[in-house]
Structures are given as C-alpha cells and as structure tokens.
Write a structure and sequence with these properties.
single chain, 7 strands, two-stranded antiparallel sheet, about 55% helix, three-stranded antiparallel β-sheet
Length: about 200
C-alpha cells in the first residue's frame, strides 16, 4: 500500500501465512543461524523475491501427486501448526492489559517486600536477560510472578529470552500451552525441572 500497490485478498493471506511461518520457525533455529539473519544488512525485499522465485520453481518441478495433496491445515516442521502472524500477536499483546494475558505480575517494590529480592538484583537480572520484565506505562516494568522460584528466576528463562527477544512474546510463549510441547505450558515445565 505504501508503494501504491494493492494486494488481492489471496496474496495477502499467503503473505500473512508466510510471515507467521517465519515468525514461528525463527525462535527455534540454532543461535548461529538466528545471528546470521539478524545481522543481514542487504535488501529483505530482494532476498524475499529470490526465495519466492526458487520456491515457485521447486513447486513447478514437484511430482504431480505432491501438487494435488494440499494440506488444509498448514504445518511447520514435524507436524507443528503454524503460529499466528507475528505482527498480529505483538499488536494484540500491546493493546491488552498485561494482567489479562500474563497472569499475576508485580513491580520491584512488591518483589522486594514479599519475595525479598533487592531492586538492584532484579535490575541486574533484567539487564542480563535473566528475568522477564514487561513494560507497563511509560518506563515502569512489572514482572510475572510465575517465573520466580524461591526468590530467583526459573532456570531456562535466559535461554528463552535469548531466542525470543521481545519480552511480551517470550512471556506469552512461556505462560501458554505450546503445541511444540504437546500442549504443556513451558514455565510450568521449567518450574518442575528446577524442583528435581
């Protein structure tokens, strides 16, 4: 639309599905591949055009039996459903009240008084990416309480934040049933693993 080109509905749906597939696959790539992608300085439009040309040629060369077996429920990887489009999810999470999707959250004062976590420690964990901090309002951050076990972040939080750098998306993934984990909730799995 910015360039005066209107996409037909089918093309828009296809583009959205592709964006969702990329967003769903990206956090699960090896770190070296993610770093290569994030450091790319070339033209994303040119790279995407090259990708689509190659995919169109591959599809055209596919055997006839493959062409007729369109799956009504597109999947990524080993039978995993494609996640909702990244931009749609980010927009939705930003417009919702944190408490409506993140569970119980608290500020640094509450955590210091009730969990005995000094503010300096909390802010150090936040800077190092060891704890999920969700921006609420201008500069204030709140912290989902479910990530803490005995006054410390659950093991594995830093790895999730390294893979999913948007804190809202990271916590959304951690706090909700995950198809890749047979519907289990990742933060509950991290909490269980720390108890053993």
């Amino acid at each position: 639309m910015q360039h005066g080109v209107l996409m037909e509905a089918e093309a828009l749906i296809c583009a959205t599905a592709m964006a969702g597939g990329v967003a769903a696959a990206l956090p699960f790539l090896p770190q070296a591949q993610r770093l290569a992608i994030t450091s790319f300085k070339g033209s994303w439009t040119g790279l995407a055009s090259e990708f689509f040309r190659a995919m169109a040629e591959k599809i055209a060369r596919a055997e006839p039996r493959d062409a007729g077996s369109r799956d009504e429920n597109p999947k990524i990887g080993a039978g995993k459903p494609i996640a909702r489009p990244f931009a749609e999810l980010v927009s939705e999470l930003q417009s919702m009240l944190i408490e409506d999707w993140a569970g119980e959250v608290a500020g640094s004062t509450y955590l210091e008084e009730k969990f005995r976590i000094p503010r300096s420690t909390l802010h150090r964990w936040q800077r190092r990416g060891e704890v999920v901090a969700l921006r609420k309002g201008g500069r204030k951050h709140v912290f989902p309480l479910a990530q803490f076990i005995d006054g410390r972040p659950a093991p594995g939080i830093s790895e999730v934040l390294a893979a999913i750098t948007n804190p809202r998306l990271a916590w959304f993934w951690l706090a909700h049933p995950c198809p890749e984990l047979d519907g289990r909730i990742p933060i509950e799995m991290l909490r269980e693993s720390s108890a053993h």
